[in-house]
Design a protein that fits this description.
alpha/beta; 4-stranded antiparallel sheet; Alkaline Phosphatase, subunit A; 503 residues; single chain; 13 helices; binds 2-acetamido-2-deoxy-beta-D-glucopyranose; 18 strands; Arylsulfatase, C-terminal domain
Length: 503
Amino acid sequence: MDNTLALLSILLAVCGVVHAQTERPHILFILADDLGWSDIGYNNPYVITPTLDTLAQDGVIFNQSYALPACTPSRASLMTGYFAYRTGLQHDVLVKNRPTGLPLHFTILPQKLKEQGYSTYMVGKWHLGFCKDEYTPNGRGFDHFYGFYTAAGDYYTHTTGPKNFLDLREDFTPDRDQGGVYSSDLFSEKAANYVANHDTSKPLFMYYSLQSVHGPLQVPEKYLDKYLFVKNLGRRTKLGMITAMDDSVAVLVEAFKEHGLWNNTLLIFQSDNGGPANENNFGNNWPLRGSKKTLWEGGTRVVTFAHGPMLEKTGYVNNEMMHIVDWFPTLVNLTGGESDSDMDGLNLWDTISKGDPSPRTEFVYNIDEEDDIPRQAIRVGDYKLIHGKAGNPSHWVPPPENYCLGEAENGRIFKNYTRLFNLKDDPTERNDLSKAMPKKVEEMLARLEELKEKTYPVLHAPALNKESSPARFGGLWNLLIAILPILGVEVLYGENLLSDTCQ
Ligand SMILES: *[C@@H]1O[C@H](CO)[C@@H](O)[C@H](O)[C@H]1NC(C)=O
Ligand SMILES: *[C@@H]1O[C@H](CO)[C@@H](O)[C@H](O)[C@H]1NC(C)=O
Ligand SMILES: *[C@@H]1O[C@H](CO)[C@@H](O)[C@H](O)[C@H]1NC(C)=O
Ligand SMILES: *[C@@H]1O[C@H](CO)[C@@H](O)[C@H](O)[C@H]1NC(C)=O
């Protein structure tokens, strides 16, 4: 009798746990900007990121996770579940006076999660267009937005060139009062605020899209002081920015804990592309080849980890293949929704949560045929084919803080070339097999051609100059007509010129 009761209570307890775990999780998706492979503590012991390292080590580190080589294409893929070449945003990044955005026929991730009953918040960088309100985060499924629309700006003034106009707002209202507040502090405070005010009867989705650690190189002095052993001031500053980012994540995680959300939160952290390993930016991707904006592994294989109580297997490094397009169907499925069957992304939940073999066996690095020499690469199994221009720099750059790793080595720059690598044997792309394996090359070229049929043409909206000048919009980077009355700015021209040019 006693035994039966004990058994019953154990069963009830177990069922209780199971019930709690099947409750839909809160999702905290943290996207770092331009964080390189060797720019996090768990890949480079000189980098001070205790919060991120602990989260990663208590969760799952993904060692073969890919993204596009630049901000806009990567964000387009994350938000749609389609490879960038199927979104029109495969070519470079959106410049701020280009009147276009992520095409509106896509139902994007926050819209999908909202359908599932989620409250949706975004803090930080958007960079998917803003020339009419349908293109902005608020127009695309985020209940609340605090952050900026363009690519980059000053970390303290929140302005961006060429004449330093403001790019910072809460929903549609410009925030002119944050001069002097460093962006990673500002954003964690605003995000923590959303968490504090969240109606806990609903699941929460937060897209925390950090400005860190994109250029310009700016950081509060106290972070520079942690890296006095680094001689190179540019690299020292970049490392300080990374540690400031780590603190920003710590503040946000604390808010999730304080408000009782943490025990049911799935945290995902990843970089949008590789680090810009150049003398202006000092990102680092060692030992990978190349840099941001290249199709080399250094531009596309990115720092990624997940953490949360719903992960069944944790505390290890997962070597399964995954791509940023996969988050869309994975998260949508996890929350009870369905994704288009035509979508490039795959539901990788069993790979992520249990370490099962990945259903992904191939992916498109990018297909961009805008220039004379196309930039395209695909992965099939262990092989990678680059056809055309991989992009520069094609160097192997050791992190400046660790001279033991050697000198930077130039990769030969081929302008128009077909290269084949076996990434399993040669993850740093040193050994071109294209001559030795012509059959494989032929096979992969044929696959590339096949995939190309699904291309969505690059969006061509000519950049506006005078018409889009923030001087006409209350000193804000903003092509929105709608905001003028809010700002109390008189509309000085008669016709709705910009809405018409916004494609
Ligand atoms: C998380 O903690 C809260 C309060 O501490 C509790 O009500 C809730 O059931 C817990 N959720 C899970 C999934 O354990
Ligand atoms: C989620 O994925 C699982 C496994 O593939 C599938 O059985 C289930 O039907 C999916 N759920 C929805 C709502 O599509
Ligand atoms: C690049 O190489 C391909 C195949 O080798 C060739 O067809 C094409 O014309 C070349 N393009 C340029 C701009 O040289
Ligand atoms: C991560 O991948 C590299 C290959 O690029 C491999 O050498 C390394 O062993 C992997 N790390 C772990 C811990 O599996």
